[in-house]
Amino acid sequence: MTLLQAIIIAIIQGATELFPVSSLGHAAIVPALLHWSVDLHGDMFLPFLVMLHLGTATALLLFFWGDWRALLSGASGRDGVQRQIESVRIFILLGVATVPAVIVGGLFEHMIRHLFGTARYAAIFLTLNGAMLLLTERIKGRGTDSVLGRPIASLGMGEAVMIGLCQCLAFFPGISRSGACIVGGLLSRLSHENAARFSFLMAQPVILMATVKEAFEMRHVTLEPGQLETAGIAAVVAAIVALFSTAILMRYFHDHEKWALQPFGYYCIAMGVFSFIYLG
């Protein structure tokens, strides 16, 4: 992999990890469209993948540091009993919502990636991802409380599990993790902004766990000269892009409550159909 290819993949990763358009799907489709000979499942790609995830997780931690600090302060009881109850509940909700991905990922991730890891399958699932986003907006738009702005702490444990199960759809290349979680949040009557916030808070432990897992898998990998430097540059690029992407998305979801997922849905369908035809 050349430095230019690494930077392009890092830019794609930094944007699509947060945008509801599937980073894994784009990682499979874009190199195939550009005819790059990059083995996304090979040992040589693992260090690069670890660094990309580390960069994305760092960006999310920086952006949401205020949220984590407020939650920790609230949970400690320094901000009053009511705030303590809400903060502890949010921590529990995040933990409950993460459990399905840990279980399903541990049992079925390799099988799913092995069966559906090609660019053409990613194109199919990317199209389905777009349809999911559009259908959710349609369902939500029919409700009488479509702009309810329900607080995250009001979610039930069953709803947290449902959002966590939605997150598991992202093991299929082309289905967006953030998109699936936002869909789960919207179906639980959260606003786009709160659904995205819950999704991004969930993402940090998930991405960190994936990074640790990938780092463990590469313990016997022999690095080629310059590989770590290339991965380090890509990680910085991914972090910067992810930081800006998060800021843009949170502002966008705040300002476009009624139809926020529609542009992403249309894009996924167009990109998926084009890629499937082109790669055929």
From TrEMBL:
It catalyses: di-trans,octa-cis-undecaprenyl diphosphate + H2O = di-trans,octa-cis-undecaprenyl phosphate + phosphate + H(+). The keyword Ribonucleoprotein does not apply. It is found in: Cell membrane. It is an enzyme of class 3 (hydrolase). It is a multi-pass membrane protein. Belongs to the UppP family. This is Undecaprenyl-diphosphatase. The lineage of its organism: Bacteria, Pseudomonadati, Pseudomonadota, Alphaproteobacteria, Acetobacterales. The gene is uppP.
